Every structure is written in structure tokens, then in C-alpha cells.
Amino acid sequence: MRKSRPHVPQVALLMQLTLKGQVDIFRGVLQYVRLHGPWRLYRMEGRPGEQRLFDLKRWGCTGIITDACDTQEAGVIASLGVPVIVCEPSPTMRQPTHPLAACSCSIFNSYACMGADIAVPDQIAVLGVDNDELICEATFPALSSVQTVGQQTGYLIAEHLDRLMRGGRLGKRIFTGTPTHVVTRASTDVAVIPDRHVARALQFIWDTAGSQPLRVPDVVSRIGSSRRFAEIRFKNVVGRTILEEIQRVRLERVASLLSDTDLSISEITQRCDFANECYLARLFKKRFGRTMSDYRAATRDM
Question: What are phi and psi of 298, to 5 degrees?
């Protein structure tokens, strides 16, 4: 049960909104305010010519959501004595799996490769973040991107700030924009793999698995050797067996259908060529750490 308060909260959002992930967080904050407000919001991005409200204390600021800031700005914010939530990139990274791509938070790293005469994806694969379709589709080659749940993160941030402004004594909490799946486009095409036969087999898996039945012998035929030699050759290059790669792609397809469509789990099971729902449920939870229903709920707008 929420504690009551005598005044409407006045919250300053000191955030740039140049990236889709930042916009998604802001939308999540607005969604929370619509459901649990009212709040009086003041947004400042720091753009040239922007009208600024310099004296936040005189304005009556009761809470702040801000991007990472320098020491001087942090001192000014701390002097206000109000709850503050800082949105900044996480410095941690899990053990990577292969194949890898250079991760770009904006379109400019892809352009930098072009300027340096580095062919994408022949010499390097490039992967974006937040799947801004206007940017990804306007890039040449089209930019693959990690899909995240930024709006849900923004909602949780606003909820946490609201509790702090009501006098709640809460410990430090880290909110993450959880990645859900990779939206693949031409910038991560497997042409970067030097073994042409394995590259062709991998592309065949990516194009086929999850949309029609696919078995290991079908992939072996693309490599053009005995099954045993093809398996060894494939694992040496990719780091997974042919079957493991087929399963990985099929599960990514399941995740995509859960987040992007209203298909039932039964329909998704059939469409992605799994034997039954129970078998798929075990594999999915092992891969993503949650049930399919929980995953769908987490990746939908709140």
C-alpha cells in the first residue's frame, strides 16, 4: 500500500533522448505517471537553445532521474537532498559466445567501418542496440540489433523513485534493460566466416531453423563431406555442434514470436518444429532462465 503525500511530485528528467533505448525508458516513466500520477515533470536534455530551469530547488524538485553526469553536476544534484536515480550503461559483460560482432550503440560505428575501408560484414560483423528500425533499415548493409525491454525498465525506475519520494527506505537497486533477442539483418551475415562451406551451412540454418523442419543431415549436405567430418569442421569454426546451433536458432525464433506476436504457445511450438510443449518449455527455461509465459509478459509493453 502506497503512503499518501500532500503535494504533487515535481520530477526532473535530465536525460538525452537521442537513442531509442533512452526514449523507451522515458516512455516507461510516462506510463507509470499515467497510472499512478499525477507528477509534474520537467525534462532537460542539454540541447542548444533549450529553455532551461536552472534553480531546481526553487522550482520545488522532489526527485530526479538523470543520465550519468560529471563531478560538478553530481555535486549540484546531491545538494538538493532529493531522491535520485542515475541511468548509466552497465560496465559488466558475461562470457561471450561465438560468433561475435562489434557492438555499436549508434549508426556511426558502422559508418566508421566504411570510412576505414572495412567491409561489413565480410571483414567485421556489426551489431546495434535497441533495434531502432528507422536507423537499422537506413544503414547499408542493414544493421542487426539487440532488442531490449527499455520501456519496462523505465516503468520500474519510476515506481522505485515514487516509493523513495513517499519516504520509503530502500536499498540500492540496479535496473537493467534486459536483452530479449537479436533482430538479424545483413550486417551480421556469416560471410565473415573464412570457411565458405561452414558459412553456407550456417546461413542455411539461420534461414531455415524455426520456420520449417530442419535436421542435421540437411545441414551436412551443405558442407559436402561425411557427417563425422562435417560435425568436427562445423564445431571447430562455430564453437557449437550442428544440432546445438539448430536448437539455438529455433529458440531465438520462439523468443521472437513470444515478444512480437499473439500466437499461442501451442502454435509457436508447432511453427518452430518442436515435438511438444513440455520439451520446448524445458529447453526454453534452460536457455532464457524463465518460462515462456514470464518471458512474454516481460517483453510486452506495460
Answer: -70, -25
Alpha-carbon gap, residue 175 to 160, rounded angstroms: 10
Contacts of 83 (CB under 8 A, 6+ apart): 62, 63, 64, 161, 164, 165
Of 103, 77, 74, which is closest to residue 11 (Cα–Cα)? Answer: 77
Question: How crowded is residue 51: how many other Cβ atoms within 10 Å of its Cβ?
Answer: 6
77: CATH: 3.40.50.2300
The answer to whether 61 and 9 have CB atoms below 8 angstroms apart is no
- Would strands 179-183 and 84-87 be described as parallel, antiparallel, or unpaired? unpaired
Residue 212 lies in a domain: yes
pLDDT digits (tens, 9 = 90+) for 58-76: 889 999 999 888 888 888 8
Q: Are 274 and 250 in contact, with CB atoms under 8 Å apart?
A: yes
**Mean pLDDT value across residues 140-155:** 83
The answer to whether residues 167 and 230 belong to one domain is no
pTM: 0.60
Distance between CA 95 and CA 26 in Å, rounded?
A: 30
